[in-house]
Amino acid sequence: MKFQTPTGMRDLLEGDLRYFQKIEKVCRDMADFYGFQRIETPILETTQLFEKGTGLTTDIVQRQMFSFRTRGGDQLTLKPEGTPGIVRAYIQQGMQSLPKPVKLWHLGPFFRYERPQAGRYRQFHSFGFESLGVTAPVVDAQIIQIFYNILKTLGFRNLIIELNSIGDHQCRPYFKKALVSYLRSRRASLCIDCKRRLRENPLRILDCKQEKCQRVARASPPVLDHLCKECHNHFKNVLEFLEELELPYSLNPYLVRGLDYYTKTVFEIFEDTKEGREQGTLVGGGRYDGLVKMLGGKETPACGGACGIERMVNLMKPKSAGVGKVAGAEIFLAQIGQLPKRKALKLLEELRKAKIKVATAFEKDSLSSQLRLADRLKVSYSLILGQKEVLDGKIIIREMATGRQKTVDVKRAIREMKKKVT
Length: 422
Ligand code: HAM
Description:
Elements: H1 14-34, E1 37-38, E2 44-46, H2 47-55, H3 59-63, E3 67-69, E4 75-78, H4 83-92, E5 102-111, E6 123-132, H5 137-153, E7 159-165, H6 172-185, H7 192-200, H8 211-218, H9 229-244, E8 249-251, E9 263-271, H10 274-279, E10 283-287, H11 291-294, E11 302-308, H12 309-319, E12 331-335, H13 338-353, E13 358-360, H14 367-376, E14 381-385, H15 387-392, E15 394-399, E16 405-409, H16 410-421
Parallel strand pairs: 1-5, 7-8, 12-13, 12-14
Antiparallel strand pairs: 2-4, 3-4, 5-6, 6-11, 7-9, 9-10, 10-11, 14-15, 15-16
Bound molecules: histidyl-adenosine monophosphate.
Residues 81-83, 112, 114, 119-121, 124, 126, 128, 130, 259, 281-286, 288, 304-308, 310-311 line the site of histidyl-adenosine monophosphate.
């Protein structure tokens, strides 16, 4: 029997993880600069949290959750997205009484039962930035700026920020009414799912991927025409900030995003290249002024977004953007014979403490095969320990480029290597 990773899930090896680490480092630096604190919520949450938070009629909740009942009878779900868990923690951990805004960032794995394809996995990773407690449009602009900065720092070019406002509880009902009345007149042209959505959640029809539904959606009444004064002004202010920051945005009147909690601003960032479009949206986010209250907290405006790490890595790899090779060993420690092998094992620890990067091949006995390996690793020096050297308390230093060798005290060799390679 051959065991394999579950469908849509991958082993991450060094070649990927190096990018992950680089991305995490850039996120951390950005978070420190903008004053965001790290938070990690559990991978499992109660299923109801997503049903209520993400929305019962969203694709994520209806089709994509990995849910199960525990032995104790709790109904749990592997988190398909981060925001409901962050809001749960914000309420549960007493953050509602902290000075506003409370700024949090997170990075970790998420799980969605999707059809695997380019840039779409069943286990993926993303990082998110969330700012809770402030209504001001400058927050929306800063959240967008942070994601844009991170992508830029990691070498992304040709980025496009798509933006829309989907109104709030005051104006959205009017928009919904206009939308439904238009969609009813086109009902025959919609897919089966969208016919159902027309009853349950008509806004979702705007992000249906079926070509025929997109045709209908593209001729629908734009939400921007239905915004109330407050939402209109908020959006106008966000755009002014983006212009001031010289961020390349474009309005997409049909962008609604696939989650139910959004109010006012919604945005997505993607790379405007063939490869970028294949991978799909890198960053998605928006304002969610009603979510904290809906999940049992006080009325708290909030705004945030999340960025898919695998999609970033898939685009970074061909450009090999910003990630150097693993720092290789600087010297090679060779040994000939049983006693030297024992001593070399001990010496290796001294070299590690002296912070010298050393390669070894304790499984090899012949000196020539060890030196061949040292050559391949392109180290500058090899330290060679033979029977005679051990008995005399000495070691040979071989300069690899010239083949020149000298025998010195072990302690002196360590000092000399430290000077030469660190
Ligand atoms: P989302 O757009 O559902 O938003 O996901 C965020 C990002 O995760 C996407 O833009 C994409 O890069 C990545 N992603 C999503 N699904 C997959 C997948 N199956 N495979 C690989 N990558 C994927 C959210 O999750 C919201 N919580 C964002 C947010 C935070 N809004 C406000 N605050």
